[in-house]
Amino acid sequence: MRELQADYVVVGSGAVGMAFADIILTESDASVLIIDRYAKPGGHWNVAYPFVELHQPAAFYGVSSKELSGGRLEQGGLNDGLGELATGAQVSAYFDDVMRHQFLPTGRVQYYPSCDYQGDGQFESKISGERFSVTANKKLVDCTHLNTEVPSTHLPNFSVADDVRFMPLNDLPKVSEAPAGYVVIGAGKTGIDACLWLLGNGVDPDTITWIVSRDAWLLDRRNTQIADEFFFETMGSYANQMESLAEAESPDALFEKLEETGYFVRIHPDVKPSMFHAATISTPEIEELRRIKNVIRLGRVKSISRDQIVLDKGVVPTSPEIIHVDCSASALANIGIKTIFTGKTITPQMVRPYQPVFSAAFIAHVELSYADDDTKNRFCAPVPLPNHDTDFLRFTAVSLANQYQWNTEPALRAWIAGNRLDGPSKLLQGLKPDDAEKMQVVKRIQESVPRAAANLQRLLQQVS
Ligand SMILES: Cc1cc2nc3c(=O)[nH]c(=O)nc-3n(C[C@H](O)[C@H](O)[C@H](O)COP(=O)(O)OP(=O)(O)OC[C@H]3O[C@@H](n4cnc5c(N)ncnc54)[C@H](O)[C@@H]3O)c2cc1C
Question: Are residues 105 and 157 in the same domain?
Answer without folding.
Answer: no
